[in-house]
């Protein structure tokens, strides 16, 4: 267990160091774009009601973090595997969980930075109030739902035959997440025959929790339990479905 | 009892079969045993199944059938326990473009389980050994292909492994770098007690003559020949000496040698000919040829010729 944790940190450090020269791109993706969107929305938002504002904040947080995880991790791992970097990890005494979590760590840092900057600024610009407790709960929920989706990225990254396939698959999953997550709208808006998708997506429970925190600050334990339960099959499918040794 | 354990055999492969999902049979019932400290060259044409074999030995690829025991450990079932003891230089390995040379070697030393201080010491030592010291602060995308291969080897060697697997390690290196590389591998092999075992594939067969204790020829996924480099020459070729001279003497030399009863074959190559014969006939042949020209070279057949012979034999058998 200790080796898994140490290796996770080493791999996270490798990924962070390898981003040194891409720092500007990292800042643009994790900060400039979301803040720009927040500002543009604030220009249009004075006429909106509180629910609409909360929907926008929820969508920006939940969907951008989940897409970052699924697309980012899926394509990062596929590139490592098809570019030969994964060979070094596979032939070293590294547990697959260390590799996946090490890669994920980098993305979680980006998501965390995005949350702590975006939430206060959005609430100020859009004119509603959240206390430190609400913000903390929202960040925890976003991190948990992001972790839940790591497995999907891992399965795609370790199995896709080429980069194009991994891109197509991660885009497809992203589309399903964006379509079926009641972030920008409520569940009732989603056509009934697709509604089952809402209930099997962790992003649904994360969205509902974020909305509750923004609207009345209520910590819904049922939603928290559902998010936790939902993480079990997702993580299980991820770790059993990913392929560490090629066939 | 664990296979190979206590017998001096560090690698035991039994009836190894690898069939890819697309139906390609890359390894067909491979059996081999490698002794501790041995340097074994795995040779074969492109697509013969060498890399597939190495990938299974290094736990990257799951065999379809058969067993692999390394240091007595069944690596098909229990790959994790062998990884701290092996070093791998993969053929198609890639590097992390924005990491420096030193960072690459150091962090992989850490991932191979070395504590911080030892990882630092070994990194410095291996970079010195491979003449990479002056490049240690460079990010790897700035390096030439040859230097990148040296980084590969540094990562493979940094944990002082008991067994090293090198898959085409000198591809892209110039001849001087290739010789330097093999000297280092020899040094690493000799340096430890017991000696480090090395399993290597390469297209440069003459290098295997210099480095390997034993050769394993693979064709169409099967082992078709194995032995030390002299033994495989004897087994495959019906000559052990080659006299090379200018082509213009072909007719006169052939006539003379035939008259003198020297048994030989003649092979043409551009502007020269090779007279292929056994040791028993060498002195008689040389004393006759020297009457026409002193421009002659005596040599042993190369492993390339053995390799061609093996492939031709296989094609004829088919």
Give the tags:
heterodimer; A: 247 residues; mainly alpha; 0% strand; B: 318 residues; alpha/beta; six-stranded mixed β-sheet; four-stranded antiparallel β-sheet; 10 helices
Summarize the structure.
With 247 residues, chain A is mainly alpha-helical.
> What does the main sheet of chain B amount to?
6 strands, mixed
Point out poorly predicted stretches of chain B. Answer: none
Residues in helix, % of chain A: over 70%
Query: Into which percentage range does the β-strand content of chain A fall?
Result: under 5%
Strand adjacency order, main sheet of chain B:
6-7-8-3-9-10
Biggest sheet features of chain A: none
Shape of chain B: globular
Helix and strand content put the structural class of chain B at alpha/beta
Principal-axis shape of chain A equals: globular
Could you report the average pLDDT of chain B, rounded to the nearest whole number? 86
Question: Could you report the average pLDDT of chain A, rounded to the nearest whole number?
Answer: 86
List how many beta strands of chain B DSSP finds. 14
* Rg result of chain A: 18 Å
Oligomer: heterodimer
How do the helices and strands line up, and which of them pair or pack?
The complex is a heterodimer of chains A (247) and B (318).
Chain A: H1 2-18, H2 23-44, H3 50-82, H4 85-90, H5 96-126, H6 132-159, H7 163-180, H8 195-200, H9 202-215, H10 221-241
Helix pairs in contact in A: 1-5, 2-5, 3-5, 3-6, 3-7, 3-9, 5-6, 6-9, 6-10, 9-10
Chain B: E1 9-19, E2 25-35, E3 39-43, H1 50-57, E4 65-70, E5 73-74, E6 86-89, H2 101-111, H3 116-129, H4 145-157, E7 163-167, H5 175-191, E8 197-201, H6 205-211, E9 214-219, E10 222-227, H7 229-236, E11 241-246, H8 250-259, E12 265-269, E13 272-277, H9 282-289, E14 297-299, H10 303-317
Parallel strand pairs in B: 3-8, 3-9, 6-7, 7-8
Antiparallel strand pairs in B: 1-2, 1-4, 4-5, 9-10, 11-13, 11-14, 12-13
